[in-house]
Amino acid sequence: MKIVFAFAILSLLVFAVASILKERKYTKIVRYISCGAAVVLSLVSAIAADYLRSLSIGIAIFTVISFLLTMFSDRFKKDSVKAFAGYMAKAILVVLLLEAICFNFNSYHLWKGGYDETAVDLNSAVVTGMTKSGSEYVSSGEGASVEFPALDQKIGVIRLDLKGTAYKTDYSIDFTDETNASYYLRTGLVTGSVFNDIEQTKYVVCDFSGKVGKLKINFINLKDNVVSLSGITLNANYPTHFSYLRFALILLGVAFVWIFKRSVNFRKALGDRPQAAKAVTATVVIVFVVISLIMSSVGLNLKTDFNDPSGNQITKELVDAFEAGQVELKDKPGSDLLNMENPYDWSERVEQNVNAKWDHVLYNGKYYSYYGVGPVILLYLPYHLITGHYLASLPSVVLFTT
Length: 402
What we know:
The protein is of the alpha+beta class.
């Protein structure tokens, strides 16, 4: 069904492009076919998959509305109304694409594949601070946790089927993955809240490194909240959601832009009031430059920042590497790190007391940097070649922000 929905989005995109482009020989045929395909495929998706229903229905409704506006815009007598109707027909499609793609981005998190949906057995979990009541586990203190010690599974989404006596239930998630396989060094990196009447808050979007070995879900701040947990599902399909309020607000903003552009004041030539235009432009630029300088120059030290003896990965290590004619960094990994079975496992490095440079990429026995090289080429490298000194980060922040 994901493929059907993907084709519905593609058809909507084609319909939008064909509607925006100037009328050509086959444009009308393309509009009819793509519009029909978008509506039909969206309705099929809505009927066949619950998690696609909300967005699919919204797409079908507003695709039809846009099509009807385009069809009947020529029947309006006033040219201004006719132009506004055509403009709004196109605007609906653009905002619809924003709603379908951008505002529902989390719903596509699992679509890259490799995630198996699994309803885990709570009876096999290590449950703390909760007692079993029928098919549910109910909290009995100020904190509770559910731990799964041996999952060995890729996880992209976690669904928490729970309800609290309070409106909001806070949680944090501890885990081990392929970069930390021995014990919980990654604690509390995933946090959030479940709200009783907001379905989407039950879904936790995760970005772990490879397969997850252990998973521990902590329910916190339960002093005035009794939580009933009925189930946990790994890699459940994140439901799409069409926000009619958000759609309407954006569309109103787009309509305001059209009305503003049509206003008399907007249509006046800039040359009619050159002094006022220059004054307003200069004032806006000066205000924003001053704000930028104030915000970015906090902590600037003129004595040391332009002659930084140590530097960091961007200001020094990449500069030294480029001056040596190479992309790998000059610092070499230690033999103890390279001899490890899995040098990327943080917990194993801690256990064996092996050091690795933080925020560096280890690849084929060499260190690389994953930071962008734009500031290095534009500023740090030329500065070092000219002065022989390393430039600290803060002066460049001030420079680039102004």
